[in-house]
Amino acid sequence: MRKTLIASTAIASLIFSGSALSAWTGWNIHNKDYPITDALESFIKNAEKVTDGRVSGTLYNGAVLGSQGDAIQMMQIGSVDFAGFNLGPMGTAIPEVNVLSLPFIFKDVDHMHRVMDGAFGEHLSEAMSKHGIISLGWYDAGARSFYNHVKPIVNPGDVEGMKFRVMNNELYVSMIESLKGNATPMAFNEVYQSLKTGVVDGAENNWPSYESTNHYEVAKFYSNSQHLIIPECLCVSTKAWGALSEADQAALKQEAIKSVAMQRELWKKREAESRQLVIDSGVQFNEVADKAAFSEAMKPVYAQAIEAIPELEPFIKEIQSID
């Protein structure tokens, strides 16, 4: 009876301290052997070690639990505990995140890292927490550039009249329209056939996506505009996070930092491999030297975004103030 009492007391102590055993459910849109997948799997595996088993979990890859929109809703109610989310589409659920979808908001990828790893990243995570989600770290998803089957894009005027597939976010539609092009929101899995048949002239994405989807086979012009640099997040439900002790939260934050460093290194390697593969295949590549001209054309996009979501203005100023 004495042993039973001791065991009961220990369990009660764990629950009271917020450190009861937690089996976390993880969502991921990517498949195995992808930089974010590897980083998420490493995070949850090491989380179990550093918390002495108080936090463990299973990562479900390939969006088998539903779309990202579904997963965001599930995280907000606490049925998904951690995930790697793309912050572009997340803007429909968390308006403040749309600041990261503004074209040319970052000078380059290194600038994005400096911004997101500092105070701004903490401020954005705090805004996200009001919607039931926090970010423990910011993964690299590279820079998105234009590709098409018609011609190189060198100047803003080259986009005029062309049909470009964009992600389903009004900001991306406005981006193409500001360049006098025709924006076509479309599911990603429809893009290859649409490029092949001429339903759209082009699309925009990073090197690994351009390569792994075989879009380079039907869109042979890749113009390195780097107009969108949108990180992804290692996100956690506020419900799951709030159930942890401060010590376990601190331990998981350290593991998140390691996970981010791992993912960025893997991404850098994967990006270089994809770039070399498509260039070797005969893709016509060009650098967009005058990005300032494209950035200037985006002023109406910023004005419309601020009018629709006034909360974005201080975030824009904060990002632009960071060298």
Q: Could you characterize what this model shows?
A:
With 323 residues, the protein is of the alpha/beta class. The protein has 2 domains: 144 residues, D-Maltodextrin-Binding Protein, domain 2, CATH 3.40.190; 134 residues, D-Maltodextrin-Binding Protein, domain 2 (3-Layer(aba) Sandwich), CATH 3.40.190.170. Helices cover 46% and strands 19% of the residues. The strands form 3 sheets. Strands 2-1-3-10-4 form a 5-stranded mixed sheet. Helix 2 runs antiparallel to helix 10.
Low-pLDDT sequence parts: 1-19
Strand content: 15-25%
Instruction: Find the structural class using helix and strand composition.
Output: alpha/beta
CATH class of the largest domain: Alpha Beta
- Largest beta sheet, briefly? 5 strands, mixed
Q: Using only CA atoms, what is the Rg?
A: 21 Å
Task: Give the oligomeric state of the chains in this entry, treating copies of one chain as homo and distinct chains as hetero.
Answer: single chain
Number of domains: 2
